[in-house]
Amino acid sequence: MRELLTIVVPLALPTALYVLWLQAARWVGSERARRAMPWLWLAGTGVVLLAVVLFVVTVGFGTSQTGTYVPPQLHNGRIVPGHIVPESRP
User: Fold this and answer.
1) For 11-68, what is the HEC assignment?
2) How many CB atoms lie within 10 A of CB 41?
3) For 28, 64, 67, 75, which has the most beta carbons within 10 A of its beta carbon?
4) What's the number of domains the chain is made of?
5) How many angstroms separate the CA atoms of 22 and 86, rounded?
6) Above 90 in pLDDT, residue 66?
């Protein structure tokens, strides 16, 4: 679900909005709606929107933890996942 919201939606949103605008313009009878679809502009807008969303997600929602990272290890036949051991304060 996270991939859908952070990658697919920002890439598809400009095209979906343009198609909706195109349909609305055809109903009104605008001559401008008869031009070819600007795929390059739509793809560029989607990539820029994707970059903004990824930047906001990584910078705005990340948590910084202080401590020492302990990588995953094998103890007694079980895998202990990686974790952060908090620093002990004197």
Assistant:
1) HHHHHHHHHHHHHHHHHHCCHHHHCCCCHHHHHHHHHHHHHHHHHHHHHHCCCCCCCE
2) 11
3) 67
4) 1
5) 55
6) no
> Which of 11-40 are b and which e, b meaning 16 or more Cβ less than 10 Å from the residue's Cβ?
bebbeeebeeebeeeeeeeeeeeeeeeeee
Over the stretch 26-45, which tens digit does the pLDDT of each residue have? 776 666 555 666 777 788 88
Give residue 14's domain range: 2-64
Indicate if the alpha-carbon torsion angle 63, 66, 72, 76 is positive or negative: negative
* Predicted structure pTM score: 0.44
Residue 31 belongs to a domain: yes
**Which residue is associated with the tokens 């004197």?**
90
**pLDDT-derived band of residue 70, with 50, 70 and 90 as boundaries?**
very high
For the chain, what's the residue count?
A: 90
